[in-house]
Design goal:
- With 479 residues, the chain is α/β, with parallel strands linked by helices.
- It folds into four domains: 103 residues, DnaA, N-terminal domain (GMP Synthetase, Chain A, domain 3, 2-Layer Sandwich); 168 residues, P-loop containing nucleotide triphosphate hydrolases (Rossmann fold, 3-Layer(aba) Sandwich); 73 residues, Helicase, Ruva Protein, domain 3 (Orthogonal Bundle); 92 residues, DnaA protein, C-terminal DNA-binding domain (Chromosomal Replication Initiator Protein Dnaa, Chain: A), CATH 1.10.1750.
- The protein has 23 helices and eight strands.
- The strands form two sheets. Strands 5-6-7-4-8 form a five-stranded parallel beta sheet, with helices on both faces.
- Helix 1 packs across helix 4, helix 20 crosses helix 22 and helix 22 crosses helix 23.
């Protein structure tokens, strides 16, 4: 390529970047090279068939118009896939998007390690699943605060992130579940950043929504085979918010991908807001495969952990605002008052920073009390699990949990079983079919009969009513 062609190509890329935006450009065009310019045609190349298909289907006119702005005589863009030797990757991985960090550094000033991760996780909401979901550069292992409630999850995630290609996979899949704002996404993104930093393994981070979008888009553009091949060429597949995975065909494809990766010894890491057994919308085969790995729950944030998170966030803010200071008594107040989740803690620090910088005032306890009033939420009722109900009811009536799940019809088992089903319906958000499944695979009509039976008895039997209320109190007050 001559110097004139290089300059022209740089200007075309600049126009393209301005036209589509930084995110879309990084996702789709950072790996596109100019091969030659001949008469009225320009020959460009990309490393994968999937990229070629997507650019031709969605951006062909945009690329042509950017070239015509520099060379009005150009009327045709030829796009080809670089050979395996040209792309410097093995043939078996040719369908997986690759990136040369030296090439991208010329167009982007971020560190090479970060760019390698961005290659597998660009941030456009409009591109296919293979580009990955957005990664937050702050969410790394270095910024993750460890406490009693997340020690096991952190250790397992770290083990996965530090693995090397060819190492035996210890936990597969690794399934992390927790409520909102307790650190699931932080851990998953930390795994992605750490895994990609060495550029030895291909780590792809996707939300369930992005997986669905990518699959549907591939079907529409008739590139589903390339989509599947590329996904199954990933070394570590990281899926966030699995509870949002919907649609029979999408779930079936996810199940096939999950099985293919695990059977091939590739690592899968998944996060959701509940354990696999509670994901009612998922197929039984998927739930069973997920439960067969390491399932780890991240508990609520204790006061000590909340204080640690606050100190970490203040230290991060001080790196950019050296004069920002939060007294110890304010941090202790916030750790006691804001108990809901880690995002509220971060929001509190951001408010204090904004108030301090914009009003040029020091942070005080009075100011903190005023600024975070709406973040101090009433304590939410405890989330009751069906397993908790079965355990407490079995203990109350002196039967075993296996008795409640069995087909026994003796009186000393039938009544406790019906009470347990009634409590499961009134104290959880589980559906009748799900409750039936969790009670030995019973039909939903059996559960409905039990619920109506106990409702009727409670209304006229004071003794049973007292028993049920006692069970509810035990469930609410148990640690």
């Amino acid at each position: 390529m001559t110097n004139m062609e290089q300059d022209r190509w740089s200007r075309v890329k600049g126009r393209l970047r301005t036209s589509v935006g930084e995110d879309v450009y990084t996702s789709w065009f950072a790996r596109m090279d100019l091969e030659s310019v001949h008469d009225e045609s320009v020959h460009l190349s990309v490393p994968t068939r999937f990229l070629k298909s997507w650019i031709q289907a969605h951006y062909a006119e945009r690329v042509l118009s950017c070239w015509q702005a520099e060379m009005p005589e150009v009327h045709r863009i030829d796009l080809s896939v670089r050979t395996a030797m040209r792309a410097a990757v093995p043939v078996k991985d040719a369908s997986v998007p690759q990136i040369d960090p030296r090439r991208v550094e010329r167009a982007d000033s971020r560190p090479a390690a970060e760019l390698r991760a961005v290659a597998t996780a660009p941030v456009s909401a409009s591109h296919d699943a293979l580009g990955g979901s957005p990664l937050d550069p702050r969410l790394t292992f270095a910024s993750f605060v460890i406490g009693r409630s997340n020690t096991l999850a952190h250790a397992a995630a770290r083990q996965v992130a530090e693995g090397r290609r060819g190492d035996p996979v210890m936990f597969n899949p690794l399934y992390i579940h927790a409520g909102v704002g307790l650190g699931k996404t932080h851990l998953l993104q930390a795994v992605t950043w750490a895994g990609n930093s060495g550029n030895e393994r291909k780590v792809l981070y996707l939300t369930a929504e992005k997986f669905m979008y990518g699959f549907v888009a591939a079907l529409k553009t008739q590139t589903s085979l390339a989509f599947k091949e590329a996904l199954r060429g990933i070394d570590v597949l990281v899926i966030d918010d699995l509870q949002f995975l919907q649609g029979k065909s999408t779930q079936a494809e996810f199940c096939h991908t999950l099985n293919a990766l695990i059977d091939a010894g590739r690592q899968v890491v998944i996060a959701a807001d509940r354990p696999p057994s509670d994901l009612e919308s998922l197929d039984d085969r998927v739930r069973s495969r997920l439960a067969g790995g390491l399932v780890v729950e991240m508990g609520s944030l204790g006061e000590e952990l909340r204080l640690g998170i606050l100190k970490s966030r203040v230290a991060a803010a001080r790196a950019h605002h050296a004069s920002f200071d939060v007294p110890e008594q304010v941090l202790e107040y916030l750790s006691r008052a804001i108990t809901h989740n880690g995002r509220d803690l971060e929001g509190a620090v951001n408010r204090l920073l904004a108030h301090s910088k914009l009003n040029n005032q020091p942070v005080t306890l009075e100011m903190a009390e005023r600024e975070v009033r709406d973040l101090i939420r009433p304590q939410e009722p405890k989330r009751i699990k069906i397993e908790d109900i079965q355990r407490v009811v079995a203990r109350q009536y002196n039967v075993s949990r296996s008795d409640l799940l069995s087909s026994r019809r003796t009186a000393n088992v039938v009544r406790p079983r019906q009470v347990a089903m009634y409590l499961a319906k009134t104290m959880t958000l589980r559906s009748l079919p799900e409750i039936g499944r969790r009670f030995g695979g019973r039909d939903h009509t059996t559960v409905l009969h039990a619920v109506r039976k106990i409702e009727a008895l409670v209304a006229k039997d004071v003794s049973l009513s007292d028993e049920v209320e006692s069970l509810k109190r035990q469930l609410q007050n148990e640690p």
